[in-house]
């Protein structure tokens, strides 16, 4: 996509990846993605802020050529991951006078990942400024959004904050800004998906970085994936809700059923929770997009893991999902296990709970059933639904932060 003007002297020069469907061989990309790089022309110096995935590097080079960029003095690297830094070696070949401006930790990671020499770097400290003439760049360390070396760059006079992955979304679009009503729903969902899959484990760090943004009051947020954000409060308010401790009266039931016994339990519990006014979403892990489940984990009050016993533990698909939940560290307040077994159900519960050591949730007494659920088992599930509903209402009504 061609270069696009954001403000006088500031342009988007990145690349759009319309066809990419998965990231890190893990995260699905239903809307594709973009790698946003920006160029800032000062009266004296020119800075390129981040680069793009090398596979799309030709688009970045074409945009620089289109804008007749004859000299780059600084390549600002907000984050060393290769989808943003991967073209730095090529840019240095074309613009050998350029210095790579970044923090000390990011410098070392760029050396490790890209084999860059020491002498190309200009290391900055938190809060330091860099003059481009009539424009000033200011740098703020923002560790753990989502790597330890991440930082923000602020174009002071223009009030544009370049946040790299933070506040981004995986969206391929020819529209630079998030201005249309039609786009708002997509931008919200894909930003939430991005938060759920990438940022959620760092929610406590993010609270501090949101406070910094509140202090800066930028007019434009320019992340390194997805749309550039003019309606800053739209995204910032969403993030404030997601990183808070507040939960919604929602229960999700990720499940696997091998011979329909566990599925019958899931269907029954889903119906019973719904009767009690609790929003509930069962997810069959054999076919679901895990990104959709992750989005519900952002603010669901409870999770019911439903699994048959396989050999001496839970079904591998449930354990795989539980491992992911353990990594994402959602703010879920309660959890339990239901399922069917042939000769030992205790091992399934123990297997799931041991996989979820990072989940700071209240565990409710599980319901494990031998074989097909029977009348007395459905009674136990009704009692479980009562307990879950009571707890969900209690937690969802609390203003915890």
Automatic annotation (TrEMBL):
CDD domains: flavodiiron_proteins_MBL-fold (cd07709). InterPro entries: Flavodoxin/NO_synth, Flavoprotein-like_sf, Metallo-B-lactamas, ODP_dom, RibonucZ/Hydroxyglut_hydro, Rubredoxin-O_OxRdtase. It comes from the Bacteria. GO terms for molecular function: electron transfer activity; FMN binding; metal ion binding; oxidoreductase activity. Residues 251-389 form the Flavodoxin-like domain. In the N-terminal section; belongs to the zinc metallo-hydrolase group 3 family. This is Flavorubredoxin. It comes from Phorcysia thermohydrogeniphila. The lineage of its organism: Bacteria, Pseudomonadati, Aquificota, Aquificia, Desulfurobacteriales.
């Amino acid at each position: 996509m061609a270069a696009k003007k954001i403000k006088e002297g500031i342009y988007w020069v990145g690349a759009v990846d319309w066809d990419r469907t998965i990231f890190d061989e893990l995260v699905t990309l239903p809307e594709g993605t973009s790698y946003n790089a920006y160029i800032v022309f000062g009266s004296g110096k020119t800075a390129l802020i981040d680069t793009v995935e090398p596979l799309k590097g030709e688009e970045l080079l074409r945009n620089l050529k289109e804008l007749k960029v004859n000299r780059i003095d600084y390549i600002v690297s907000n984050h060393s991951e290769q989808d943003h830094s991967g073209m730095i070696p090529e840019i240095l070949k074309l613009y050998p006078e350029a210095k790579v401006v970044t923090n000390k930790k990011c410098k070392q990671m760029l050396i490790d990942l890209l084999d860059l020499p020491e002498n190309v770097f200009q290391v900055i400290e938190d809060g330091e400024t860099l003059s481009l003439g009539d424009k000033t760049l200011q740098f703020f360390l923002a560790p753990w959004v989502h790597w330890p070396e991440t930082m923000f760059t602020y174009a002071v006079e223009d009030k544009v904050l370049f946040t790299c992955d933070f506040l981004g979304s995986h969206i391929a679009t020819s529209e630079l800004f998030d201005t249309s009503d039609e786009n708002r729903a997509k931008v919200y969902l894909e930003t939430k998906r991005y938060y759920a899959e990438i940022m959620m484990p760092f929610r406590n760090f993010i609270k501090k970085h949101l406070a910094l943004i509140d202090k800066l009051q930028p007019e434009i947020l320019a992340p390194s994936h997805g749309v550039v954000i003019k309606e800053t409060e739209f995204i910032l308010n969403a993030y404030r809700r997601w990183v808070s401790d507040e939960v919604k009266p929602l229960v999700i039931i990720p499940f696997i059923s091998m011979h329909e016994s566990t599925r019958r339990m899931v269907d029954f519990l889903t119906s019973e929770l719904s009767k009690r006014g609790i929003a509930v979403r069962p997810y069959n892990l054999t076919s679901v997009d895990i990104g959709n489940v992750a989005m519900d984990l952002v603010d669901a009050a409870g999770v019911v893991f439903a699994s048959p016993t396989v050999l001496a533990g839970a079904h591998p698909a449930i354990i795989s999902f539980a491992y992911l939940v353990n990594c994402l560290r959602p703010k879920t307040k309660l959890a339990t296990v239901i399922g069917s077994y042939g000769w030992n159900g205790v091992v399934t519960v123990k297997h799931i709970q041991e996989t979820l050591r990072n989940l700071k949730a209240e565990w409710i007494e599980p319901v494990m059933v031998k074989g097909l659920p029977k009348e007395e088992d459905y009674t136990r599930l009704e009692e479980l639904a009562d307990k879950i509903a009571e707890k969900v209402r209690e937690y969802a009504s609390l203003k915890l932060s």
